[in-house]
């Protein structure tokens, strides 16, 4: 007797992978590599840069990024390295805007079957003040979302 789990297969054709410059990015790629993907699957590696004016608009009591922003060339080079580690076709999307909104927009554009995103593991007041991109993507995304947590 076969079970529903044994007979139902989910085919992931288009996967949007949201990566930032944090240490969780490597973990996200490792998790993606653990998935069994069809030969015709396509992975869209994306990075969202905050708009230049956003730093000026941050309230004084909101935490500011500790590290200087990476250049688009540095980010693109890192995403190209990740591309070489993938067994399927992939492309890179570098965009600017609100991270959750842009990830959701890209998922809609590419008709994604899955979004893979890291979670910074913020809790309590940090989560309230800084917000959670992964939570917003889970809530508003057009498809399933795999949230990769820090080990």
Automatic annotation (TrEMBL):
Gene3D superfamilies for the chain: HUPs (3.40.50.620)
Highest taxon, organism lineage: Bacteria
Protein name (Swiss-Prot/TrEMBL): UspA domain-containing protein
Organism whose genome encodes this protein: Chlorogloeopsis fritschii PCC 6912
Domain spans labelled UspA: 13-149
Family under the similarity heading: Belongs to the universal stress protein A family.
Any Pfam family hit: Usp
Cited SUPFAM superfamilies: Adenine nucleotide alpha hydrolases-like
């Amino acid at each position: 007797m076969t079970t529903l789990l044994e007979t139902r297969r989910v085919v992931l054709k288009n996967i949007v992978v949201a990566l930032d410059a944090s240490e969780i990015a490597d973990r996200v790629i490792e998790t993606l590599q653990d998935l069994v993907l069809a030969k015709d699957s396509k992975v869209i590696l994306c990075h969202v840069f905050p708009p230049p004016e956003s730093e000026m608009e941050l309230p004084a009591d909101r935490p500011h990024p500790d590290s200087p922003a990476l250049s688009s060339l540095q980010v693109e080079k890192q995403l190209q390295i990740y591309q070489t580690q993938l067994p399927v076709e992939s492309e890179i999307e570098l965009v600017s805007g609100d991270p959750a909104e842009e990830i959701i927009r890209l998922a809609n554009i590419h008709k994604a079957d899955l979004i893979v995103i890291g979670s910074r593991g913020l809790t309590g007041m940090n989560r309230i003040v800084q917000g959670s991109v992964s939570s917003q993507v889970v809530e508003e995304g057009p498809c399933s979302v795999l949230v990769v947590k820090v080990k």
